[in-house]
Design goal:
51% of the residues lie in helices and 15% in strands. With 389 residues, it is α+β, with helices and mostly antiparallel strands. It has eleven helices and eleven strands.
Length: 389
């Protein structure tokens, strides 16, 4: 009995996308195939992501695409999710650069900034002419950002900020840093332009994950800023946490792209690699692996599609995003590891994508809320009891 032509979308999930969403899918996928995939293994091995690639994403209209006005594309949340998916099918570092720009740097300016701040930064950031980063995590305060030591004090009409931020994507190549600091009035956000006196960066090297991504420390030593550098529209942890919710939504979509790329790589290898006189895809154990990988991928894709509908309706909640971030990243890393086993020894080389995706997903599992923190957020929603303290 003959089998139908192989496919990785047996549930036809992409049929649920609108024509505009499919166009964005195809445009970003073509960009990735032409301008990223021929070079990504080399970038990963070298530990770099050329800034020009992020600039090209601006020309493509991807940066801040889910925001409206100020040169932003104003697409819907599902279109944004699909773009994140296609970027991460190339590499998590590429999606991370785009989502930090759009959801962690542009979003707080768009949501909480003054008109002057929006007009100064958002058009250039949407075009990829100016890059941003998001300074929240500190060396001693990751999952508990409320304990941050970075402090901003008033000095006349100015603010003076001192502190250190850690694990900052795009940090050393950013033109503007959105830095969150404690003040006598609570946590506030500040826009710190590159080149400001007392503001320096240093890159973090010897990473084995997200290597095709710039990761930095931010050092603020008595950085003096004018009063209008502060984001006026929010105070407290609500500000940075709302930005993280935006970014986690993109992550939940993005990792389905990494998972799909690993499944496709495993299928291609399994149908061409022969052992014992036939393709290894003809053996039951290999088919069982592929079937479970596909099923996990479909569940992840359906979850983020539902999440996108909730976001379209304006009813999405942070705990719903936590559910998707926690489960989809775990599913993606499991798929990447399983795909590697199908590729055997070949799977540990950068000639194939699964080991690169698996390494990247180790960082994605941790950043923007560890798996443990999202688990506890969901547990609190189910029981009404906080287990944090």
């Amino acid at each position: 009995m003959s089998s139908p032509a192989p496919s990785t979308d047996l549930l036809n999930i992409d049929d649920q996308l609108s024509s505009e969403e499919r166009l964005i899918r195809d445009t970003v996928r073509e960009f990735g195939a032409d301008q990223v995939m021929p070079y990504i293994a080399d970038w990963f091995e070298a530990g770099t992501l050329p800034r020009e690639v992020i600039t090209e994403l601006g020309k493509l209209g991807v940066l801040g695409m889910h925001l409206t006005g100020y040169g932003c594309a104003g697409t819907g949340p599902i279109a944004y999710g699909v773009a994140c998916r296609e970027l991460e099918a190339c590499d998590s570092g590429l999606r991370s650069a785009a989502s930090v720009q759009g959801s962690l740097a542009m979003f707080p300016i768009w949501k909480y900034g003054s008109e002057e701040q929006k007009n100064e930064w958002l058009p250039r950031m949407a075009a990829g002419e100016a890059l941003g980063c998001f300074g929240l995590t500190e060396p001693d305060h990751g999952s508990d950002p409320g304990g941050m030591r970075t402090f901003a004090r008033r000095d006349g009409s100015d603010w003076v900020i001192s502190g250190t931020k850690m694990w900052i994507t795009n940090g050393s190549i950013a033109d503007i840093a959105v830095v969150w600091a404690n003040t006598d009035e609570g946590i506030r956000g500040f826009l710190v332009p590159r080149g400001t006196a007392g503001f320096t960066t240093s890159d973090i090297h010897k990473k084995l994950s997200l290597r095709a991504s710039v990761t930095s420390e931010l050092h603020l030593d008595g950085v003096r800023l004018p009063a209008d550098a502060m984001l006026p529209g929010v105070s407290g942890l609500k500000g940075p946490l709302s930005c993280l919710t935006e970014a986690r939504y993109g992550i939940a979509w993005g990792v389905t792209g990494a998972a799909r790329a690993c499944l496709e790589s495993a299928i291609e290898y399994a149908t061409t690699r022969e052992q014992f006189g036939k393709p290894i895809g003809g053996f039951q154990l290999t088919q069982a692996k592929l079937a479970w990988m596909a099923a996990e991928l479909y569940r992840s894709q359906l979850l983020v599609l539902h999440l996108g509908r909730l976001k379209e309706a304006g009813s999405i909640t942070p705990v719903q995003v936590s559910i998707a971030k926690m489960t989809n990243v775990r599913a993606a890393i499991d798929i990447a590891r399983e795909a590697r086993t199908i590729l055997g020894a070949s799977g540990v080389t950068l000639e194939y994508s699964p080991i690169r995706h698996a390494n990247n997903l180790e960082a994605v599992l941790t950043y923007e809320g560890t798996e443990e923190i999202h688990t506890l957020a969901i547990g609190q929603a189910l029981t009404g009891i906080s287990a944090y303290r």
